[in-house]
Amino acid sequence: MAGNMQLVLAAKYIGAGIALIGLLGAGIGIAIVFAALINGVSRNPSLKKDLFGYCVLGMALSEALGLFCLMISFILLFAV
């Protein structure tokens, strides 16, 4: 019985670690969005305000997905 609980606990930690891989994707996504902003502003500085609005939207969407992954990891660790 105790061995079974240790197996469940190990699976819980492994699942939480796998769920955190999404944070890596969110970080890469934010970096790509800001790199595209820098590239776009350097090519056409007059579009700075429009591009910055799109940049903030892209960053928010990318970070939201990262926060969902973090939430799933916390649910696996502390709620189950």
TrEMBL record:
Which UniProt keywords are present, listed alphabetically?
Answer: CF(0), Hydrogen ion transport, Ion transport, Lipid-binding, Membrane, Mitochondrion, Transmembrane, Transmembrane helix, Transport
Name the CDD domains on file: ATP-synt_Fo_c_ATP5G3 (cd18182)
Q: Which GO terms describe its cellular component?
A: mitochondrial membrane; proton-transporting ATP synthase complex; proton-transporting two-sector ATPase complex, proton-transporting domain
A GO molecular function assigned to this protein is:
proton transmembrane transporter activity
Organism's domain of life?
A: Eukaryota
Stated membrane topology is: Multi-pass membrane protein
Q: Name one Pfam family in it.
A: ATP-synt_C
Q: Where is the V-ATPase proteolipid subunit C-like domain?
A: 14-76
User: Any keyword Mitochondrion?
Assistant: yes
Q: What is its main location?
A: mitochondrion
What positions belong to coiled-coil segments? Answer: none
The compartments listed are: Mitochondrion membrane
In its UniProt record, which GO terms are filed under biological process?
Answer: proton motive force-driven ATP synthesis
Stretches that traverse the bilayer: 13-39, 51-79
Described by its record, this protein's role is as follows: Mitochondrial membrane ATP synthase (F(1)F(0) ATP synthase or Complex V) produces ATP from ADP in the presence of a proton gradient across the membrane which is generated by electron transport complexes of the respiratory chain. F-type ATPases consist of two structural domains, F(1) - containing the extramembraneous catalytic core and F(0) - containing the membrane proton channel, linked together by a central stalk and a peripheral stalk. During catalysis, ATP synthesis in the catalytic domain of F(1) is coupled via a rotary mechanism of the central stalk subunits to proton translocation.
Record text on subunit structure and interactions:
F-type ATPases have 2 components, CF(1) - the catalytic core - and CF(0) - the membrane proton channel. CF(1) has five subunits: alpha(3), beta(3), gamma(1), delta(1), epsilon(1). CF(0) has three main subunits: a, b and c.
The UniProt similarity line reads: Belongs to the ATPase C chain family.
Q: What is this protein called?
A: ATP synthase subunit 9, mitochondrial
